[in-house]
Amino acid sequence: MRILAFSDLHRNGDLAREILRASEDADVVIGAGDFATKGIGHEDTLSVLKELAAPTVFVAGNHDVLASLRASFDDRANIHVLHGEAVRIGQIDFFGLGFEIPAGADEPWNQRMEEADAAVHLKKCPPRAVLVTHSPPYGVADIQRDGTHVGSRTIRDAVRDSAPRLHLCGHIHHAWGTCGIIGNCSVHNLGPSLNWFTVT
């Protein structure tokens, strides 16, 4: 299965159109959150991505309104907006969890979740799934400009315990394009670019 994945478009319609063109060669498309910016402008990207024909998995970022994201695709059976849920595509499970974890800035637009709440959702992640979260796990692909790790310990533990075949995330801009390993699972902070993966 060939996966095309990205995160953090932040209203970049041009890149959304590039993703749409590239998706013709993908078996699955994954978007790991932040289609909008500070809760506005989601239509700049989602109006383009609505035309995706391949099976697609999206999660909401901390800049996204989950209800708006789901409403944008309520008439598209191939596009799955996951938040604490799994979907099977082919013979592979995909599990998604959005928002900022752990909860950060207390801004009206910032969609965030405490570690304990995230743990409840992540317990439902099937083993050997492709795990898609907006936030990265603590210690991998999560380094800020000041050198500190700001990822989620709960996500790190879920990767260790459920042993996904692949973990895709975004959120931390300084860590875009970085990757690492937890157990036998490869973790990738995607960023606003075209990233290709093959899973079996």
Give an overview in words.
By secondary structure, this protein is an alpha/beta fold. It contains five helices and eleven strands; from the N terminus they run βαβαβαβββαβαββββ. The mean pLDDT is 97. Helix content is 21%, strand content 24%. It has a single domain, classed as 4-Layer Sandwich (Purple Acid Phosphatase, chain A, domain 2). Helix 4 runs parallel beside helix 5 (153-162).
Q: Average pLDDT, to the nearest integer?
A: 97
Rg, nearest Å = 15 Å
Low-confidence region ranges: none
- Using the coordinates above, name the CATH class: Alpha Beta
Largest sheet: 6 strands, mixed
The fourth-level CATH homologous superfamily is Metallo-dependent phosphatases
Strand content range: 15-25%
Task: Please bin the fraction of helical residues.
Answer: 10-25%
Using the alpha-carbon principal axes, give the shape. globular
Structural class: alpha/beta
Helix and strand pattern: EHEHEHEEEHEHEEEE
Distance between the termini: 6 Å
**CATH fold-level label:** Purple Acid Phosphatase, chain A, domain 2
Q: How does CATH name the architecture? A: 4-Layer Sandwich
